[in-house]
Amino acid sequence: MSKHLAVNAVSKPQRRETDARVAPDVSIQTPLILEDNYTFIEPLGVGTQGKTWIASAKTTKERVAIKIVSLADTNDWKNFELCEREARLLGDIDHPNIPKLYEVIRDDKANAEKIYIVREYYEGESVQQMLDRLESLSQDEIFELWLSMLDILNTLQTHRPPIVHRDIKPSNIIRDLEGHYKLIDFGAASSSTMNATGGSTIAGTLGFMPPEQYMGKASPASDSYALAATICSLYSGVSPSDMMNDELSLDIAKYLGHVDWHVVQLLKKMLDPQPLRRLYRADEIAEKLTEIIGALKEGRSQTIEEHLRWEEEKEARLHDLKEGIIEEKRSRKEFVILFVIIALAVFLRLCSGLASI
Question: In the prediction, which pLDDT does 316 show?
């Protein structure tokens, strides 16, 4: 039998986009369980947990995104159940840049059980697509995205219990037609309660996820790490997986030589391999980032390369100063010795004169 699982009351999709609509492809078959309410239009993407389709809601004619998670595809009953629970967990989150969850439908009649997750659809371009097109983003665009994601993370972190996305990366961030950045694909999301009770499974993307996630452990600090790794890729155009050293830490200084030194230091604190040492609270990071942006607007900027040159020059000045002090001490010592020798010579001559009298 099929089950329509209740979700906290969320209004059905309202008309948001006025662009021309593509007529549904008659060759695409809408799953029978969804036929009364939705019509599949075209595939949107394929992830580790399932395939997502763009569909039209028959009552409002609005587009929605429907992810299909199949037990046969995941081959993991625990992961399948978590997808269902964690999707419903998002039902009470209200944030303009997080897709609204409309309903979760479980189909037990199929040969292999399936879950259909129906959410708000954002028309736009993923940040990964922007990177593929532009190679890197401007600093202003990066700051705008960074602050937008921190606002989202603050909502997830202050939720009770906190929610961990676990797979923040450029392909899961959408820039909609109005220029707003949206975080999508909460299929890997979990609550910190689930992690604490051992309900977490390994999820995430190589390079973007922190060391603890490789062991199936995730916390709000894990999302901050993933966001920092994402920001590094936006600055450099290089995937974090290519920045990893032998200790599985990101060697970002090598790739961010053109970036402001204070920005890099902030990223390093967010990328600390140890979760307990990591700077992760979104409100604190946003405060520090806002201060850096203000300083940059006032012209107080210094890239890593400039900072290293400044450090080298400072070391050289200190070395010269030390050498000068040593030389001055040596000169003083030599002067004292010379003075003593002259004084001694004068004394001996005086003594010699007195003796002759």
Answer: 65
Which residues make Cβ contacts (< 8 Å) with residue 227, sequence separation at least 6?
146, 149, 150, 153, 168, 270
Output the six-digit token pair for 350.
């005086």
Q: What is the DSSP string of 199-227?
A: -----S-TTTS-GGGGGT---HHHHHHHH
Give the pLDDT confidence score for residue 91 in this predicted structure. Answer: 82
Which single residue is written with the structure tokens 């029978």?
Answer: 32
Nearest CA to 87 out of 14, 194, 226 is that of 194
Q: Residue 208's closest CA among 246, 186, 251, 239?
A: 239
8 A C-beta contact, residue 307 and residue 315: no
Number of Cβ within 10 Å of residue 55's Cβ equals 26
Note whether 59 and 13 are within 8 A (CB): no
Arithmetic mean of pLDDT, 120-135: 92
* Pairwise CA distance, residues 287 & 210, whole Å: 23
Domains of the chain with CATH codes: 22-120 (3.30.200.20), 124-305 (1.10.510.10)
